[in-house]
Amino acid sequence: MGVENFVDWLRDAARTLHDNAAYLTELDSAIGDADHGANMDRGFAAIVALLDESTFDSVDELMKKAGMTLVSKVGGASGPLYGTFFLRFGTALAGAELTPATIGEAFKAGVGGILARGKPELGDKTMYDAWAPALEAYDAAVSGGSGLKEALEAAAEAAAKGRDATVPLVARKGRASYLGERSAGHQDPGATSTTLLLESAARTLA
Amino acid sequence: MGGMKKLINEPGDVVSEALRGMAAAHPDRLRVDLENRIVYRKDAPRPGKVGLISGGGSGHEPMHGGFVGFGMLDAACAGEVFTSPVPDQMMAATKEVDAGAGVLHIVKNYTGDVMNFEMAAELAEDTEVLSVVTNDDVAVQDSLYTAGRRGVGVTVLLEKIVGAAAEEGRSLQEVAELATKVNDNGRSMGMALTSCTVPAAGKPTFDLAENEMEVGIGIHGEPGRQRLPLAPAKDIAAMLVDPVLGDLPYQQGDSVIAFVNGMGGTPLIELYLMFNEVAQLLDRAGITVARSLVGNYITSLEMAGCSVTLLKVDDELVRLWDAPVNTPGLRWGA
């Protein structure tokens, strides 16, 4: 377990987001402004370019750079939100040994960053509806003695459930909230990209 | 549904090539930082003057780049189409236009814009930055539990009026207070006859049948709150004016700047026809049109439709509105 796993994660996430760009944009055109897929694809393509031209000695350095890249390249609300996640995730891992517990602490710090930046509540129909249950499931798995892979799989599964649960919700944050009741019946694009990221983590990080 | 029919080369190059075009068309008034996608007033920074910066997604032209120049903005940061610019851009612009008097960020209330400008203001440590967030769209129910009302038409009027005040040498605090006053006294409501196509998406953001319209739209092609059968202009005017009038509320005896804005794909003849309807409704309500603005100023690509903005004005606001301005998008007296 080392920096190379996190490089694999970012590369795999970039591929996954690229393959799902049209899907994310389609979800976003129903209740947003039809740019989520293109924006995420652009941001992660910039991370891949960064990985191609630089090497990283530590996970915290890698994740902080990835976070700044997302802030600089994605725009919209997703840029600051995902960027803040990776920045805080990286900062929390500075000098730490990579264990399921320390990665859990970093996960928590990252989600805390999303909470501070976007001030979402559970059920607002945002990416937080995937992040919050994912973090909870991860912590529960680690407390129960699971290894990293099982914990990440539990997190990805919980994120997917959270994502699916956004469908009937009326959005209270972001552009979808302008639609009021009409936002119900659509899956949240941010919760969808969050789930893709966590599924990618479960594939690559352990 | 047909393919995308636009005057473009590659969808990914639309914003940068349009900025090159602005630089080529207005070398006397603007300089454009193509790398950071910032349109600057040619003579910025102006010593002693508060710097005014705005920005947002592209696709709303002439806002914001077209409002850079004497009497209006010092810089405008262009994001991708319908996507907020990023903090790097606002930080670079803030540093560049700061002449020691501080910088005001004019931000439209969209989650992404607000977050990115917030990050930039936090990171721009050496400059005194204040922000005003416009949120004049009455179509959105305002509530503690939502992202709140969108910033739409009032942003144009605010950039003009606040630009004139900054030109007079007012302090950052005074300029920010004036900006808040303008936002507090303005309300808007918009509607769409057609959807629009983001170049990177390649297909319309939403579908509207021939006999339908969308009332309560924002400026990003996001669908509105209500889909209704198409109606005559006089009925549409009432659907836009009534909620605006009732919201502030505007009262008999008030003076306003009345702004009928095109969404990009509606010809001026229809906008003037709409203005006629709006003026009659205001007259009936006992409201005086002190000044007016009619045209495509805050748009949604090629969307057809319009918005109505009313700004309640006093003598000070009218005087600042009348002050000279020289930008690609708005010019009089200079």
Automatic annotation (TrEMBL), chain A:
GO terms for cellular component: cytosol. InterPro entries: DhaK_L_YcgS, DhaL_dom, DhaL_dom_sf, Dihydroxyacetone_Kinase. SMART domains: Dak2. This is Dihydroxyacetone kinase-like protein. GO terms for molecular function: glycerone kinase activity. PANTHER family: TRIOKINASE/FMN CYCLASE, TRIOKINASE_FMN CYCLASE. One of its GO terms (biological process) is glycerol catabolic process. It comes from the Bacteria. SUPFAM superfamilies: DhaL-like (SSF101473). Residues 4-203 form the DhaL domain. Pfam families: Dak2 (PF02734). The keyword Mitochondrion does not apply. Keywords: Kinase, Transferase.
TrEMBL record, chain B:
Keywords: Glycerol metabolism, Kinase, Transferase. InterPro entries: DhaK_1, DhaK_dom, Dihydroxyacetone_Kinase. One of its GO terms (molecular function) is glycerone kinase activity. Its EC number is 2.7.1.121. It is an enzyme of class 2 (transferase). GO terms for cellular component: cytosol. Residues 10-332 form the DhaK domain. Pathway: Polyol metabolism; glycerol degradation. SUPFAM superfamilies: DAK1/DegV-like. PANTHER family: TRIOKINASE/FMN CYCLASE, TRIOKINASE_FMN CYCLASE. Homodimer. The dihydroxyacetone kinase complex is composed of a homodimer of DhaM, a homodimer of DhaK and the subunit DhaL. This is phosphoenolpyruvate--glycerone phosphotransferase. It comes from Kribbella antiqua.
